[in-house]
Amino acid sequence: MEVQELNFFYGSVKALHDISLKFYTNQVTALIGPSGCGKSTLLRCLNRMNDLIPRTRVEGRVLLDGQDIYHPKIDVVSLRRYIGMVFQKPNPFPKTIFENIAYGLRLKGIRNKSFIADRVEKSLMQAALWDEVKDRIHKSALGLSGGQQQRLCIARALAVEPEVLLMDEPASALDPIATQKIEELIHQLKELYTIIIVTHNMQQAARVSDITAFFYMGKLIEVDQTKILFTRPKLQQTSDYITGRFG
């Protein structure tokens, strides 16, 4: 996936300035920067979630497998099957655990019960949740803990077999133990997916990502391999943010 000279506007306010950035297959890219710097706006540009906001406008290109996702002929509903998203707070549907996972499959028109059951189990296993819920899979998802609910939302995104997984601060609402499980899960999932994560937590970015991109006031300031960015950043501004001098 690649962003080329991307500008984004909320009405007359320019929120992103000429962003060009590549996201590599089977790698985790972390987007970091202070609140309001544009990282979540960029994330939502990657699966056209910003389309839902009135008076927004995009310039530039966002490519998935070489195809511009903003091309007029793109089916946005179909697009979001290839680019899954996990939000800051867990948002399970008020349905059973099984039906939460099966929902996207049914939306695709899949009716084969054994296929759906297999996909539900596989997705829950990928999300490291199967062993914890297999005996109550037909009970409400709202009975799960916060960390379990977030892994359920990850499983729900994985069920339709996306190419890219977007994560907007997926552990910010969770306790340290649940956060560790989410981070371990990210390490496992990158073997199968391209993962892009927004995080305010510098330690988390350092732990989970291969590439880190630092944003400030809607601009991409610096991007590099995470180990290099956190130990030998090229710009003083990046160093100041990482070391907590501002932000």
Please tell me about this protein's structure:
The protein has 247 residues and is of the alpha/beta class. It has a domain at 2-89 and 164-242: P-loop containing nucleotide triphosphate hydrolases (Rossmann fold). The protein has helices spanning 39-45, 76-82, 97-107, 113-126, 130-133, 146-158, 176-189, 202-208, 226-231, 236-242; strands at 2-10, 13-22, 28-32, 56-64, 67-68, 83-86, 164-168, 194-198, 211-216, 219-225. Strands 6-7-8-3-9-10 form a six-stranded mixed beta sheet, sandwiched between helices. The protein has a four-stranded antiparallel beta sheet with strand order 2-1-4-5, with helices on one face. The longest helix has 14 residues, at 113-126. The model has no long low-confidence stretch (mean pLDDT 96).
